[in-house]
Design brief:
Strand content: 25-35%
CATH superfamily of the largest domain: P-loop containing nucleotide triphosphate hydrolases
Order of helices and strands: EEEHEHEHHHHEHEHEEHEHEHEEH
CATH architecture of the largest domain: 3-Layer(aba) Sandwich
Radius of gyration: 21 Å
Helix content: 25-40%
Largest sheet: 6 strands, mixed
Oligomer: single chain
Number of domains: 2
CATH class of the largest domain: Alpha Beta
Structural class: alpha/beta
Strand order of the largest sheet: 5-6-7-3-8-9
Length: 294
């Protein structure tokens, strides 16, 4: 469904994406995580055909730059920041349905699920809505159309707790759709059974399809062995509450399930230093995190 090879995008001298490689199969759910500036939004914009770039980008076999209209017909998109649209809500919905061929009722149904009353806001300019109302409407337009690929950039931002829960329930119901969902909360996206991909400085630094909902609920007992002592690693290990009884070569600690992604990201940064790493969950299942960091 999605194929990225050596994708590079620069803004002046700064590289937002640096030789990024990623493949996403049809129907796969991917949680895209990373700090601000890691390249998540730039990646999304390349998939939408908005940026010229180096390297290969394909969405369902299409080049988003060359075949942009046909590509966008397949995509439902929720941006991180709402656009400054002045048109009334009802006109925006009419425009969206006209372009995509979606049913207005589908959009209305999603609005109802998220708690947005279209009868109340229909005549108001989109620009005058609250942040939460804008987000709910953009989600409804994206989910209400007949898209097979969803790109959701921090979709739960500005949503009240009931709407957040409703959003992820709606996403769970779309089992056949391919999704790229960026989020700072791994506990939310894990409920989708998503493959987790972390970006850092425009590259994939972590990619694990095993971080489903079950993994974020359970604590892990972790044992690490390093090839030699290292002050930076020792400082990081201490910050995680790990203890070494042999001067810094072996470390033991406990990591909560919800912190698993952040912890694996730490291991990925020090993969060259690690000699052995293993964990046991509170369910008694043993896992070798070095395989995920490879």
């Amino acid at each position: 469904m999605i194929r990225l090879e050596n994708l590079t995008k620069s803004f002046g001298r700064a590289k937002a994406l640096d030789g990024l490689n990623l493949n996403v199969a049809r129907g796969e759910k991917v949680a895209l995580v990373g700090s601000n500036g890691a390249g998540k939004t730039t990646l999304f914009r390349c998939l939408l055909g908005e940026y010229a770039h180096e390297g290969l980008v394909r969405v369902a076999g299409l080049d988003p730059r060359r075949d942009r209209t046909e590509t966008l017909r397949r995509i439902g998109f929720v941006p991180q920041l709402p656009p400054p649209l002045k048109m009334p809500v009802d006109e925006l919905i009419a425009f969206a349905t006209g372009v995509s061929g979606a049913s207005r009722q589908n959009i209305v149904d999603v609005c109802d699920a998220l708690g947005l009353d279209l009868a109340e806001v229909g005549r108001r300019p989109f620009l005058k809505l609250s942040g939460g109302q804008k987000q709910k409407l953009l989600i409804a337009i994206a989910l209400g159309r007949n898209a097979i690929f969803l790109i959701l950039d921090e979709p739960a931002a500005n949503l009240d707790p009931p709407a957040r829960a409703a959003l992820f329930e709606l996403l769970q119901q779309r089992g056949d759709d391919t999704m790229l969902v960026s989020s700072h909360r791994i506990d939310e996206v894990a409920g989708l059974g998503a493959r987790v991909v972390e970006l850092d400085r425009g590259r994939v630094v972590f990619d694990d399809a095993s971080l489903g909902a079950g993994h974020v609920r359970h604590a892990m007992r972790v044992s690490l062995t390093v090839r030699h002592t290292d002050a930076a690693f020792a400082k990081a290990a201490h910050e995680w509450g790990f203890i070494s009884e042999d001067g810094g070569l072996s470390w033991d600690g406990v990591v909560s399930g919800s912190d698993r992604l952040r912890f694996f990201s730490l291991l990925a940064r020090y993969s060259g230093l690690l000699l052995d790493a293993s964990l046991d969950t509170d369910q008694g299942k043993r896992h070798d995190p070095l395989q995920s960091c490879a």
